[in-house]
Amino acid sequence: MKRKTKSLKRRRFIHNTIVHIFLGILGFIWVLPIFFVILTSFRAEGGTYKSYILPRGYTLNNYKKLFDSASNLNYERWFFNTLIVAICSCLLSAFFVLCVAYVTSRLRFRMRKKMMNIALILGMFPGFMSMYAVYYILKGFGFLEAGPLKLVALVMVYSGSSGLGYLVVKGFFDTIPKTIDEAAFIDGATKWEVFRKITIPLSRPVIVTTLLTSFMGPWVDYIFAKVILGQDRQYYTIAIGLWTMLEKEFVEYYYTQFFAGCVLISIPIALIFLFSQKFYVEGVSGAVKG
Amino acid sequence: MARRKGKKSNINTSLRDIGGIASFIQGNGITKLSALVFGLGNLVHKQIIRGLLMLFVEIVYIYYMITVGFNSIADFITLGTGVQAEAFNEAKQIYEYVPGDNSMLCLLYGVVTIFLTLGFALFAMTSVRSAYVTQKKIEYGEAIPSFKDDLASLKEQNLHKSLLFLPVSGVLCFTIVPLVFMILIAFTNYDKNHQTPGNLFDWVGFKNFSAMFAQNGSLSNTFWPVLNWTIIWAVFATFSCYIFGMLLAIVINREGTRYKKFWRFIFIMSIAVPQFVSLLTMRTIFNTNGPVNAMLRNIGIIGPTEAIPFFTDSTLAKITIICINVWIGVPFSMLTTTGILQNIPKDLYEAAKVDGANAIVIFFKITLPYMLFITTPYLITSFVGNINNFNVIFLLSGGGPESLEYYYAGKTDLLVTWLYKLTITNKDYNLGAVIGIVVFIILAILSLLTYRHTGSYKDEEAFQ
């Protein structure tokens, strides 16, 4: 009997060791590229590819040069452009998504099922397929005349059709017990008040998730940004700005600065992301339980 | 008393569901006239503000049609007639450009006008319905709602209208109108030889479609292989990330694993890095002269001038891309599955263990079916996302290696990246639009079929 438990223990020990080694190897693979980015951002030697991996010398100059206002590429400006666009578009799209999700989850009216099917189909078109048409519409309304207006246009493009992405939030609202709503109706609340004072406060995790996903959008998108902003380097967002650094005319000089720029924007995004991680898991996997 | 009450609620429900056409047929003279003069039914019955608002909308629309609308419909049919021309200016003694019609704008304004007209027709129905409801209310001797009541109902029975107004108009402006516009372009010859404003383009019917699907044309010789690879890519990318992510989540969640938070943190770190940064970095790492090849040279596995063609050999490029996509996608699916895994009822596992099932059997018989049941919508979204996965392909390989057999496409191009190349680089907007439509049809059929069979669609009130 004793021997049996001993061999069981040993087997468990071996299993655990294998699992931890396996996780260690995988973790190493997952962290390696991130190290590469960080190391290259401190590399003292300019130029692009080197035949070795660890830099020969280290410097902070790559970071300093990013904020050099005399430089052709203005990183600081790009950063604030993106920040403003991201804040505006995440507020707008979160509002849109919440409205649509509440309507489809709680209100019953003619056309409801039809609208949901249409939304499902519309969500399937590749967004940038109609990019060119969007460009012309914005131009028609005069949004592409001046730089600041282009940023407004960008906000509208990012948040305009965000209402289509309501499904996750609707799924969340569906799990909020209806009895809570009914109790409020008995107390004389209107549906609008229920939405504002009960549903929204109860769905904090999913709201944070929605806010964050749409906040991240402008930082990583460059197709729309490129089409709308064109050659106006002053109004670039960070993604196309960094992409410009890798263009043939710049890459030889800006290669290491590109990585420095990447590290700098990754830090705030990573912090926000890690901070909200628990909200993300809660938001995707369920709502009020019981 | 009780009978009257029952009757009343009966009217209310049937009135709310009645359509515009039915009210037109059943309505009296004034109701019928409301289809011509908006708000008449309301104006007659002292709902002045409501009636005036409706009338105002009608007047604005008619004014628009007379000043702009009819012209743009005519231009929409011809797509412009006057070509931009050079004319000799006698006074200045120079040649000047006389601007011609811009087919692009003709098409756009035409689409906008058509949408306004459709909206107008819907509004006419609303007007009739509103008149009919008022008529019925008078017949049954009910109080006619004042404008104040109407406003209050926007927070109650009509809350859906007020909440949906902004999101739907956003979708209309930034998705539906552009979409219709691009679909129409698929039926024109708007390619690199017919660029506006210098040239006009015109309707050509189904010519672009037949070129795309014809036997042995250069277009169809590109289309089928690209479609093929798109589907292979989507299947591999979706399921590899899903399964590996789930396995990773299981391994981290299992009892014996220590430092769970640490491991999760390690993998989640790669999500926190913006995707284009990690993609561009990966591209650098696997470049011909990038670190991986440099390392292999240093170790001596390949010769000092050789390089493994990670992105330049067509088969290897496909494998590399799928592997890199695993690197990017696994943390995401790990994150999504972690929460759901913890919700699987524990007694299922205990019962299986009692029956002597080992880890592999438990995974295939319990975990996987349960997860598939819950996460089908997630799987569909990520499959659709992968078919449209522009970023990964464009930033990693750019669609390369280039191929001479293909019409402006590379060996790893997906339909969407090919679409991008055709429109942005090559200016063949008509072909791009055809591809967009094809992608859409595939995805729409696929997801309508699968999505309608999922529990969350059929039984959406299960947890309420």
Can you give me a brief rundown of this structure?
Chain A: Belongs to the binding-protein-dependent transport system permease family. MalFG subfamily. Chain A has 290 residues and is mostly helical.
Describe this structure in words.
The complex is a heterodimer of chains A (290) and B (464). Chain A folds into two domains: 2-60; 64-285, MetI-like fold, CATH 1.10.3720.10. Helices cover 73% and strands 0% of the residues of chain A. Chain A has helices spanning 2-41, 61-66, 75-106, 112-122, 131-140, 147-160, 167-174, 178-186, 191-202, 204-220, 223-229, 238-245, 248-275, 277-285. In chain A, helix 1 (2-41) crosses helix 13 (248-275). The longest helix of chain A has 40 residues, at 2-41. The radius of gyration of chain A is 25 Å and the shape is flat. The model of chain A has no long low-confidence stretch (mean pLDDT 81). Chain B has a two-stranded antiparallel ribbon. Chain B folds into two domains: 16-185, no CATH class; 214-458, MetI-like fold (Orthogonal Bundle), CATH 1.10.3720.10. The two termini of chain B are 35 Å apart. Chain B is flat. Chain B has 20 helices and two strands. Chain B is mainly alpha-helical. The chains are: A mainly alpha (290), B mainly alpha (464). The interface between A and B is large, with 97 and 96 residues.
The largest sheet of chain A, given as strand count, sense and whether it forms a barrel, is: none
Query: Architecture of the largest domain in chain B, according to CATH?
Result: Orthogonal Bundle
| Radius of gyration of chain A (Å) | 25 Å
Helix- and strand-based class of chain B?
A: mainly alpha
- Cα gyration radius of chain B (Å): 31 Å
Which CATH class of the largest domain in chain B is shown?
Mainly Alpha
Q: Which fold name is given in CATH as the topology of the largest domain in chain A?
A: MetI-like fold
Which chains have the largest interface?
A: A-B, 97 and 96 residues
How many strands, what sense, and barrel or not for the largest sheet of chain B?
2 strands, antiparallel
Strand content of chain A: under 5%
What sequence of helices (H) and strands (E) makes up the elements of chain B? Answer: HHHHHEEHHHHHHHHHHHHHHH
Number of helices of chain A: 14
CATH class of the largest domain in chain A: Mainly Alpha
Mean pLDDT of chain A: 81
- The CATH level-2 architecture of the largest domain in chain A is identified as Orthogonal Bundle
Keywords (chain B): Cell membrane, Membrane, Sugar transport, Transmembrane, Transmembrane helix, Transport
Pfam families (chain B): BPD_transp_1
Domain ABC transmembrane type-1 (chain B): 227-450
Family (chain B): Belongs to the binding-protein-dependent transport system permease family. MalFG subfamily.
